[in-house]
Amino acid sequence: MIKRLRWLTAGGVAGLVVMTVVYFRLIEQQPPQTSKVAPTPQKVAQQKPAETTASQLEDKDQLSIVFVGPRDNIPDAAPIAYGFWSFAVPVTGILSRSGQPLIGEFEWLAQQGWQGVVNLRVDGERDEVGDDRKLPGFSQLGMNYLALPMVDGHPPKEEQAKQFLSFVSNPVNQPVHVHCRGGIGRAGTMVALYRYAVQGWPMDQAIEESRAFKGGVSNLQEVWLKGWAQENTAGSYAN
Length: 239
Known about the structure:
By secondary structure, the chain is of the alpha/beta class. The protein has helices spanning 2-29, 41-46, 60-66, 103-111, 158-169, 185-197, 203-210, 219-231; strands at residues 88-91, 95-98, 116-119, 144-147, 176-179. It has a 5-stranded mixed beta sheet with strand order 1-2-5-3-4, covered by helices on one side.
């Protein structure tokens, strides 16, 4: 009995040794593991969005991720770039909106027949060039230009509102493209103003339309719009 136990013990140890040797040999044969390093914020910021068009994006999930708001009434060939993710045409032939276009998007607008640009950005905000006229090649496009600098999240001054309505209502400037940085609050405020002052929409409806663009107008902008509606009759700026 004792001899048998000694034999089993010796056999067990020998088996364990063999298994250990086989394990380490298998480890040596495995290719070295490379760790994936996440890109730094600086590298992510340098990555440019892929050049594509709306007609090339058919996946609804992808559309919901890419676009800031509904891209209504736009040509299939409309560019898809960062500032143009919120591109829409609220009033066909008269008024469109978006975030900050780059020169390529301005060139496309000019080629499509847009005549005017209203820029709502403050030059230098977020350490960025906010004056479209400083973009190389912009002046050569021959588009009529109106700068109405508004602080992000804030409403226009009354004189700026009147300038905007006058500019957009002038056929010489139509279609007019209005933009801020993201195409959400400031652009949404001015479109709501046009809806009420020129088209005669109820102000609540005009404000609600802006909500489709990532929340739309800010509280300050909403208060200002409702105040404008109290002082001015709907449709009073219609030609």
